């Protein structure tokens, strides 16, 4: 599920977490709160990206959808757990019609993305997942792009914006600033907030690892239902994404991600510098729009908690109408428009 560490653990409850983040004053941000309830006429219009391309990038051979004109401005859209590239199956065509080239990669451990070496650690830490995005851009010779993300993808997009701002022209992030740290994760949350992270603690056990291996699809469907309680997705919609979980590294990467957050698993030394920078909770200076649905059943922070982390041109948009955690797939028209608008927040 969405990320800031485990699904909003980081910023999940303004009480306690707001105090933990080193917020600074907004220097040039225009923060606007807008409530949107436009009927989403494109939701469910598309069911496939067609041909998935493959490219070697860093530690991976990455599978990705490539939609729109080859010479269009690049947009990189990043999915989370337990979802896949179909989060953006209705978003990508909309952006392509607007002239963008849309790249939607499978995260490590999903779909056709595979590790190049059997000896590479199946690492799910935030620095590794974000570094994969930079490696993909380098492989595709994309100097900079507009970024959009939800769940783990929102965190990765935010990391790129914060640490590699020259690679990120603008950002759209569901549920805001999700960058976390192991040190912050040591702080306990109130019991009701901890309850929302049940799967995090399950994954911390050997029973949880075995349970996720055995019941991967059942587990994912339960998370979908809890995170988006008003989204009436059908079996076909779920199954299209569930095929991505058959990746041989999916369980290992997923479980390592949550164990690493709690300090129960080691990361890789090559990402230490990235994690050190992220532990300072750097501001995001690129033009940004954050989005939140009114029916998000996953842990998530209040916009007021993270607004000051966006120190450039900035807007927050609240979506009504029963929009849950998988916002791009549930409200693709609103998400697409946010990408276009963020690109114009100059």
Describe the structure.
The chain is α/β, with parallel strands linked by helices. The protein is 36% helix and 16% strand. The chain has 15 helices and ten strands. Strands 1, 2, 3, 4, 5, 6, 7, 8, 9 and 10 form a ten-stranded mixed β-sheet that branches. Helix 2 (91-97) crosses helix 15 and helix 3 (126-139) crosses helix 4. Residues 2-31 have low confidence and may be disordered.
Give structural attributes:
346 residues, alpha/beta, 10-stranded mixed beta sheet, 10 strands, globular, disordered N terminus
Count of helical segments?
Answer: 15
Query: How many angstroms does the end-to-end distance come to?
Result: 31 Å
This entry's quaternary arrangement is single chain
Estimate the helix proportion, in percent: 25-40%
> Outline, from the CA principal axes?
globular
How much of the residues is beta strand, in percent?
15-25%
Number of strands: 10
N-to-C series of helices and strands: HEEEEHEEHEHEHHHHHHHHEHEHH
What can be said about the biggest beta sheet? 10 strands, mixed
Q: Which class best fits the helix and strand makeup?
A: alpha/beta
Average of per-residue pLDDT values: 91
Low-confidence stretches: 2-31
**Estimated radius of gyration:** 18 Å
Quick take:
With 346 residues, the chain is an alpha/beta fold. The chain has helices at 14-20, 91-97, 126-139, 152-163, 182-185, 191-195, 198-203, 206-214, 216-227, 235-242, 250-261, 272-278, 303-306, 327-330, 332-343, and strands at residues 33-36, 53-57, 60-67, 73-78, 100-105, 114-115, 145-149, 168-174, 288-293, 314-319.
